[in-house]
Amino acid sequence: MNLYDRIPNNVNLSEDKKLQRALEKWLPNYLDWWREMGPEGFQDKDVWLRTAIDVGSEGWAHFDYVKMPEYRWGIFLEPPQPDAKVGFGDNYGKPAYQEVPGEFRNALRRIIVTQGDTEPASVEQQRQLGKTCPSLYDLRNLFQVNVEEGRHLWAMVYLLHGYFGRDGRDEADELLERRSGNPDKPRILEAFNQPCDDWLNFFAFTMFTDRDGKYQLSALAESGFEPLARTCQFMLTEEAHHMFVGDTGLGRVVRRTAQLMKQGDVRELGGIPLDIIQKYINFWFSYSLDLFGGEISSNSADFFAAGLKGRYKERDQYTEHTAANQNFNMTVVEDGQLKTREVPLRNALNEVLRGEYVKDCEKGLARWNKVLADEGVSERLFLPNPRFHRHVGEYAGHTFDIQGNLISREEFERRKDEWLPTMEDREYVRSLMHPVVEPGKIAQWIAPPAAGIKGKPFEFEYVRL
Ligand SMILES: [Fe+2]
Ligand SMILES: [Fe+2]
Fold first, then answer.
1. 50 - beta bridge partners?
2. Residues with Cβ < 8 Å from 457, sequence gap 6 or more?
């Protein structure tokens, strides 16, 4: 692969002139979008970024100073598996699809567009954050996440251009036209229309919402449509860093808060009180749960039957890959009460994936609670019940308290300020957000990281301003 290709890739783009031309035509539109909707105010600065130039263990993480508009967004797929097979569903064991199967065309395009839409959306949500960064280290991490979300958009656009012809190209154009939070042309999924305008939001977003991405990509990495599987497998290596940013970022806020709690009043000392951190967790966790879709879903059954979207670690974790003739016990609301209903497993696969996600989030909470314990503070953070504050699926339209008990809408309205960030909470957090850009310095509401990036110290000049 030539490092200086216009579009770095390991898919032999130069041998497919038609595809290359289509992507080269899309490239300037992408750059226009990046300049208009990418990080505001830092486009001409040198940022110490990781660029994927190959998928091998050496090549995929190349570090250097780059100006973001010159970042080389490439197309990288994991190498093909010889004799790849469909790993689940009705076509289990048949050869993997190398082209889009006609009968699944619409479903597959929908899956790719929905995933693709989240990538530029998050860049748009985060575009103002650079102006209030708590340190140069954090500023660089923000931009790393942003350019990689841009690359993930490229990955999905490659599939649309390469495998879906005319309507794929139209969809690729529309991915650059929708805008996060714009009422006339919003992004497809609601969590990606929520503002992410302070750093506590950013860390909670990368912890909880990027982690949804991990589980969606993992399910698609099992896909019988091989180009999609190989694309997602590589995206997951980048995604890990985004969750690291969120997980350790929140952990550092928690550490700082715990330190300040021992000194006196956290607010007076300029920190973020634990109850506000908890409310941000509640907000982003509940919105991220919605991203998995309805608890009982015929789409999930169809996608699985078709071999398009598997379960988390389908190949490694399961021995039975049809999920047919099995049932799943689901908690549902019936006659104003919570009841257990048996549903066909295939219709419950969104919920199965959501369950894996919740387990993973719990590990993050355990890490933050360990920070609290290490600092000698007795309070603990927790995840709300998955029924709390939902806008999609079985529990939408009902109201629950933070423990998941069914309550009246009036009671929810009366108590919601205990559970979700209020306007004042948000304003308070925003009031703390002042840029700290001197190398080695950090804002007072967050602890420094345990280590720098790629062996560099925290004091390293990660962004040249
Ligand atoms: Fe992504
Ligand atoms: Fe991400």
1. 63
2. none
Over the stretch 428-451, which tens digit does the pLDDT of each residue have? 999 999 999 999 999 999 999 999
Ligand 1 centre from 333 Cα, in Å?
34
Query: For 191-242, what is each residue's pLDDT tens digit?
Result: 899 889 999 999 999 999 999 999 999 999 999 999 999 999 989 988 999 9
- Say what the pTM is: 0.96
Q: Are 109 and 164 in contact (CB under 8 A)?
A: yes
Ligand 2 center from residue 145 Cα (angstroms): 6
Distance (Å) from CA 288 to ligand 1 centroid: 14
Return the ligand number nearest the Cα of 126: 2
User: What CA–CA distances, in Å, run from 84 to 49, 81, 98, 230?
Assistant: 34, 5, 10, 11
- Ligand 2 mean position, distance from CA 325 (Å): 35
Tell me how many helices (H) and strands (E) the chain has: 13, 7
Give 128 Cα–ligand 1 centroid separation in angstroms: 19
What residues pair up with 342 in beta bridges, in sequence order? 329
